[in-house]
Amino acid sequence: MKYESLQIVLNLDGRGFYWDAYNPIHLDGLIGYAVGCEQGLKEIESDDEPDEYELPLKKWNINGVWGWHASALITPEINDDLISIQFYRKKFRENKINSTSGTIDLKGGVYREYNVPLPLLYCDKLNSYAFGNKDEIYRLLKTYIKAIGKKRKSRVLDIEINSIAEDFSCIMGNKIMRHLPKEDGTRFIRPRPPYWNNYGRVNCCDVGIEAGKDYKFC
Fold first, then answer.
1. End-to-end CA gap in the chain
2. Buried b vs exposed e over 105-136: b needs ≥16 C-beta within 10 Å?
């Protein structure tokens, strides 16, 4: 399988998506989901060991910890005009009470109520970088990634994928482009998909910090 440096652009419908600067969507997370759809996603709990799918990406290895050459999705320069606050709400309907049994707990479980403020980012493009197989990445994203963000709020209209001269999947200039292992990193997460899972978590750095001399890939 041929690998090369790539730029991937997701063209969105512009309706906005729920955006968290501290937990950015990673391109390999989308590709991993797509591969899982083809191979059969299994329902697991957050502490269960997940299946490790082979992705059409080159692997990196830092001091025995490995992951995929794929950046986080890069948002446009943020200003107040691009963000609004919407509330993610869930409320128990009192007219459904006769169809339930047992004690109804509104603070936890299936009947838990929500009223959470979330930032909604309005943009029509998300940029990302990878070192992998161009045709297979395009096929997977085009086939399985129809929308992104919490509740799949923003539809993906089209995907552009271009060959480029340099690999920016992990570092661009002196900026970190994805979560990478770092002994004194402030994030305790998995270094590869599924990122929500707790199994195999390590200390990682935030996206966007200066790389310095900490990172040597093999």
1. 19
2. eeeeeebeeeeeebbbbbbeebbbbbbbbbeb
d(CA 181, CA 189): 9
Token pair recorded at residue 4: 């090369």
Contacts of 16 (CB under 8 A, 6+ apart): 84, 120, 121, 122, 123, 153, 154
At residue 82, the pLDDT reads 47
Question: For the whole model, what pTM was predicted?
Answer: 0.81
Instruction: Please give the biggest Cα pair distance in the chain.
Output: 63
- What's the CA gap between 127 and 8, in Å, rounded? 6
pLDDT tens-digit map of 175-209: 999 999 998 888 999 999 999 999 999 999 999 88
Interacting residues of 34 by C-beta distance below 8 A, sequence separation 6+: 140, 141, 143, 144, 145
pLDDT at residue 218 above 50?
no
